[in-house]
């Protein structure tokens, strides 16, 4: 392992140590005592009594507020809409700063994220005290920490696998690479699959003149649509999994994914064939010599299997709960997070530095995600609470407007295309819960959503994942792929060029087809 | 061993040019070509969060590096030396090693990182990583250094670095090659100190007689090294020390008045090398002298 690699390890170890110290093992609660009280339940069931063992801080002077399942006040119905302003500013910062002041953003994006988080958290804590503190701890411990740990482990493990050798990019070979990437994305994450294949894909096509459309379709398929089948594929689905959606439920998206992927691959093939014949029509003789393909660092597939196993296990077992800072989380969830960290560490220790360097692996992209998402998660607390309040909250007009699956698909999607798709998914996931099962604890409502309102959850899941391809800011790997392609000499369209030339022309028609087939 | 091609990597820190000038004294020992290298760290210019690559910055950084290198070459104005430039973007360590291989460099020169406003001795982890992984000798240059010695804060400027090298040997193959490397600097060298430290761990549980036998054996080997050096026409001075290896080498280098420490990079234990640092790396990290590590 490289010495520079110590920093993220030390960072992770610190998180683990701090969380371990903060945990209160004495407050272990048997799972059978927890049946009615989900760890993720900060929903709006005022009929439930305060949980006796939570130990989190009660708000003072809030007698008029509703009480949630854990005895903390339910802020959803009373929070004003303007409390979502920091969230909007956070997302606007992500959208605009890179375009308007890229250098400032590059050096200070962490501070910007911290600033917006503070503008939400400080007044929130001042006004709602203990309840606000609970909400912040809850979103950090139950959502942010596992989310980052999963991304980190997938990123680390996939960054240790390198495809060497020479591929020559003919239309058929390119379609094969894109298909492989689409299939892998659900199992190693869109970020992992994109990082694994983008360089071989670019190398394979370095003799071609027009490569821009290839990278764009790579973003469509590998960095987005392909990740829709499991919670490992894309962060929004993992957040859904954390909130009780079973691991393999997302396989329901398979027909939708096959439709979009099939359409895009067919279009890609003809587009590629057109350009291929227009340019040279064949691989140049001096380019035809091939070095056999070889996967290096394949032992990382074991760790990838370990990650999948850990995620699966945590969804299948119930080992009781542990109270950390008043937030109840399943022991199996902590164990899963520990295993994910272990898989990442094993990968770092056992993979030669040269493989990572040949992969152009750096920690920057994951650090970027960690910094930005802490701001996103904290600032979105009011939005989530208001949406969860359903018709009782100040976003009742939106909740009332989003009714049919087609609405969920397009609205979740449209927002995911320009905002981040993980919080967007969570927002509409909660909207669906609030609309269909108002006042019901999340642990009870989610299984009902998965079975009774299956079309709604399909629409939210597909919308959040698919539409991430609509713009560079829709999903984290989109920009990483763009950067790598530009670095390798492939010109890429501008932010709006991407949308006008590719999203509107290729993606939206494919989504329209999906809408007519599945959501009408 | 000969040092004909040199890869001088710089991040354009203060005194980098002075450092280059001291290294160029190797011309007397056969240096012919100098590759001036600068790596723009990819993280500084690419992966701007949601912003793509900073193309204008890349262009500017490349141009700045080129202009500086041109200026250096012009200032040195040595027609007997061939200067080339390489300015690349990527992971610095990997690029340095890649460039050294491509240029068939006989030695890589890297600088240390300045820790504070004061010029304290500090070696960045990136430099240590190059030391660990290079298959060619690596010189860690330290032109001006502030350091603590016996409670005093001292300043040292290393200008005549090749004059009095101290060869720290553990009799391993890399140590053997370190001797060859030191001899290759012959025209520049006034005297070579050869030292061996009987480490505390080795002597801790030994009886006095066994320790004496070890001492005798070490002195014999030191004499052999010195004879070889003297046979090459250079003065040699043996020093046997006992105690903590790193501290003993540092103390010896000061007592002897060394200008450079030359060591073989033994790489005994993988875990220790990477996490705790081997003796050679600790010396490179802590010494106020330039350190030449031979793989």
TrEMBL record, chain A:
Record carries keyword Glycosyltransferase: no
Pfam families: CitMHS_2
InterPro entries xref list: CitMHS_2 (IPR031566)
Transmembrane segments: 12-30, 79-100, 112-128, 140-163, 175-198, 210-229, 249-271, 292-314, 365-387, 407-433, 454-475, 495-519
Keyword list, A-Z: Membrane, Transmembrane, Transmembrane helix
Record's protein name: Sodium:proton antiporter
Source species of the chain: Desulfosarcina ovata subsp. ovata
From TrEMBL, chain B:
Gene3D superfamilies, A to Z: HUPs
Location of the UspA domain: 33-141, 166-295
Protein name, entry field: Universal stress protein
InterPro entries: Rossmann-like_a/b/a_fold, Universal_stress_UspA, UspA
Family: Belongs to the universal stress protein A family.
TM region positions: none
Origin organism lineage: Bacteria, Pseudomonadati, Thermodesulfobacteriota, Desulfobacteria, Desulfobacterales
One Pfam family linked to the record: Usp
Signal peptide positions on this chain: none
């Amino acid at each position: 392992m490289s010495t520079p690699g110590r920093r993220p390890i030390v960072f992770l170890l610190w998180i683990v140590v701090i969380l371990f110290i903060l945990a209160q093992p004495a407050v272990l609660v048997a799972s059978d005592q927890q049946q009615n009280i989900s760890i993720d339940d900060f929903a709006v069931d005022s009929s439930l009594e305060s949980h006796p063992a939570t130990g989190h801080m009660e708000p003072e002077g809030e007698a008029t507020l509703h009480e949630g399942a854990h005895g903390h006040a339910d802020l959803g119905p009373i929070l004003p809409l303007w409390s979502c302003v920091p969230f909007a500013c956070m997302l606007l910062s992500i959208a605009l700063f890179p375009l308007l002041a890229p250098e400032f953003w590059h050096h200070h994006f962490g501070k910007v994220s911290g600033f917006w988080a503070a503008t939400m958290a400080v007044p929130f804590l001042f006004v709602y005290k203990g309840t606000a503190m609970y909400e912040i701890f809850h979103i950090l411990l139950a959502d942010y920490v596992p989310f980052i740990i999963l991304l980190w482990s997938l990123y680390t493990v996939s960054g240790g696998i390198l495809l060497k050798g020479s591929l020559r990019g003919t239309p058929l070979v390119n379609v094969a690479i894109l298909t492989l990437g689409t299939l892998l994305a659900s199992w190693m994450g869109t970020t992992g699959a994109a990082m694994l294949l983008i360089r071989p894909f670019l190398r394979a096509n370095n003799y071609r003149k027009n490569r821009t459309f290839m990278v764009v379709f790579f973003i469509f398929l590998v960095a987005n649509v392909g990740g829709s089948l499991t919670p490992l594929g894309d962060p929004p689905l993992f957040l859904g999994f954390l909130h009780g959606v079973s691991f393999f439920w997302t396989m329901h998206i398979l027909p939708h994914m096959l439709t979009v992927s099939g359409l895009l691959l067919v279009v890609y093939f003809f587009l590629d064939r057109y350009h291929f014949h227009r340019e040279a029509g064949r691989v140049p003789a001096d380019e035809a010599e091939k070095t056999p393909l070889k996967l290096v660092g394949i032992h990382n597939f074991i760790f990838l299997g370990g990650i999948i196993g850990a995620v699966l296990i945590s969804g299948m077992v119930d080992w009781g709960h542990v109270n950390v800072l008043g937030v109840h989380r399943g022991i199996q969830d902590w164990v899963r997070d520990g295993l994910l960290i272990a898989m990442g560490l094993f990968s770092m220790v056992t993979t030669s530095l040269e493989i990572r360097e040949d992969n152009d692996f750096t920690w920057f992209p994951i650090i970027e995600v960690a910094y930005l998402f802490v701001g996103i998660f904290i600032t979105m607390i009011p939005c989530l609470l208001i949406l969860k309040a359903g018709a009782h909250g100040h976003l009742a007009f939106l909740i009332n407007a989003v009714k049919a699956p087609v609405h969920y698909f397009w609205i979740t999607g449209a927002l995911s295309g320009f905002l981040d798709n993980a919080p967007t998914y969570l927002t509409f996931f909660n909207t669906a819960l609030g609309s269909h099962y108002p006042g019901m604890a999340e642990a009870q409502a989610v299984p009902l959503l998965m079975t009774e309102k299956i079309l709604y959850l399909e629409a939210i899941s597909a919308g959040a994942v698919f539409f991430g391809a609509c713009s560079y800011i829709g999903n984290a790997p989109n920009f990483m792929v763009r950067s790598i392609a530009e670095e390798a000499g492939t010109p890429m369209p501008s932010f709006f060029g991407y949308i006008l030339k590719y999203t509107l022309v290729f993606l939206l028609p494919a989504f329209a087809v999906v809408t007519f087939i599945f959501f009408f | 061993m000969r040092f004909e091609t040199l890869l001088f990597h710089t991040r354009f820190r203060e005194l980098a040019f002075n450092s280059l000038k001291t290294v160029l004294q190797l011309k007397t020992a056969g240096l012919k070509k100098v590759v001036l290298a600068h790596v723009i760290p990819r993280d500084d210019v690419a992966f701007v969060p949601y912003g793509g690559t900073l193309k204008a910055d890349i262009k500017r950084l490349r141009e700045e590096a080129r202009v500086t290198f041109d200026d250096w070459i012009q200032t040195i104005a040595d027609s007997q030396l061939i200067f080339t430039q390489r300015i690349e973007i990527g992971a610095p360590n990997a690029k340095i090693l890649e460039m050294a291989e491509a240029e068939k460099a006989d030695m890589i020169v890297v600088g240390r990182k300045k820790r504070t406003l004061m010029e304290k001795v500090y070696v960045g982890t990136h430099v240590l990583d190059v030391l660990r992984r290079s298959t060619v000798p690596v010189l860690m240059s330290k032109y001006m250094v502030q350091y603590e010695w016996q409670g005093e804060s001292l300043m040292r400027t290393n200008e005549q670095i090749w004059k009095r090298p101290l060869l720290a040997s553990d009799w391993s193959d890399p140590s053997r090659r370190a001797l060859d490397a030191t001899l290759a600097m012959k025209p520049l060298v006034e005297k070579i100190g050869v030292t061996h430290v009987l480490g505390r761990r080795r002597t801790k549980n030994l009886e006095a007689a066994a320790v004496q036998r070890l001492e005798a054996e070490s002195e014999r080997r030191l004499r052999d090294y010195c004879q070889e050096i003297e046979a090459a026409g250079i003065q040699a001075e043996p020093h046997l020390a006992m105690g903590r290896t790193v501290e003993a080498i540092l103390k010896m280098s000061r007592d002897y008045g060394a200008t450079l420490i030359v060591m073989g990079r033994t790489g005994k234990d993988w875990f220790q090398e990477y996490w705790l640092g081997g003796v050679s790396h600790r010396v490179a990290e802590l010494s106020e002298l330039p350190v030449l590590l031979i793989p």
